UniProtKB/TrEMBL annotation:
It comes from Paenibacillus hunanensis. This is Knr4/Smi1-like domain-containing protein. Residues 35-158 form the Knr4/Smi1-like domain. Pfam families: SMI1_KNR4. InterPro entries: Knr4/Smi1-like_dom, Knr4/Smi1-like_sf. Transmembrane segments: none annotated. The lineage of its organism: Bacteria, Bacillati, Bacillota, Bacilli, Bacillales.
Amino acid sequence: MTFQHQLERLKLQWNDLLETLQHKGADVIHIYEEPVKDNQLAELEQQLGIELPDELRQMLAMASEARMGWTLPHESLVPFGANGDWGWSFQAIYWLDVWQLEEAVNPTRYLTFCPGYNGDSLVLDMHAPSKQHAVLSWNHETGDFQFLAPSLGEFFERVTIMYGIGAESWQYEPFIDYSGLNVDHPHSLKWRAWMHDYVHLTLEKAQATLEGLIRYTEVSGVVDVSLRSAFHHFAPELILQAWQKRINEESDRGIRETLMKYIGDICYTHAADWVRSLWRSHAEERINASVLTYLTVRCLPESEGLKLVFNELEQMEQTSRLNGYTACAWLKPFTSRKVIEWMFLGQRVSYPYDGWDRLFACSAPSAEDIWQWLGGSTVQQQVVISALAMLENVQTIFPEQAQLQHTLGLLEQQLDKAVTKKEKNLVNGAVHALNKL
């Protein structure tokens, strides 16, 4: 098979892959520009001082630029954080600036043909006087090269099998050994199996077993009614055990914690004892606070969950003043008025109040809460005024026009007392938000 025929075959595979991924919800890039003209090639070769390798010339005869790429819609569960980016560009063909390299290098050795979006680049090693030249990945930060394949044809074959990963240097690292980009490396096999399931696995195929459903959850990244219904054909304790088994198999901490959140989405109160066991872990062994809170909200009764979080935050207060961002991270998922009461009675808000305002706004405040805070300390007043501009359910909070007018009157009093421009702008922002009603 000639290289031209190989390219035509690969192009069809690339088109099918990108169309499938786009249908699955991925963001894709799919660019084919007009072929390079003979006079343009001649001019480039004169500038470079060489005759371009035959494989590269044939690529440019297909398209002056071919850029393919994809990003999946739920990156947290994508193994190795990979995404797709491959191709070539006539405009990107030039000698690599060797002044960036620490060691002395022939300035006409490395010929770039595909830049990565972060500044890395795919290059041809022109050192060996042969018809085919090795493809390397160049890291623009370290100046290091990674051998990927002995030729352009072999490189694109390997990248296609790997679903188009690249073109930034770090994308290749998990899959490289002495032979370059190894499609049979253990990491490569894991990646290829995951992507195969992402492309081909359906809920209908997966629902026969818990393992299949868990795999489908991972690759789809969406927990909806139909998926929950499929899980509920199995006993709750078996569902939890299957998820725990999958979590214990996973070495990537970020993926492990996302898998834990799926337990909350699917098992709910059936996972309550498991969530309680997570709280009993030593602080240094605990999972990410946002994940622990997420599970607490979904799996434990509100009163029990809030008590656990309140105790955690109050222990923090024993060593340093609690800041709003930390409190918001732990308490925002509850969307509970009890949080506002805890904030007020403990006089916990302080300057800078960033984070406290967001927490107030998302904790289902009532009109009475807002009036109480407007009559509180100076920092409490500023917290609630700032929060008023963040509210998304104003009509629910003020179902009666009289309540709204009373609140606007209190804000007018705050505006009269405001001294600085910043304070006046804060009050005016709250008034503007309420006047939209």
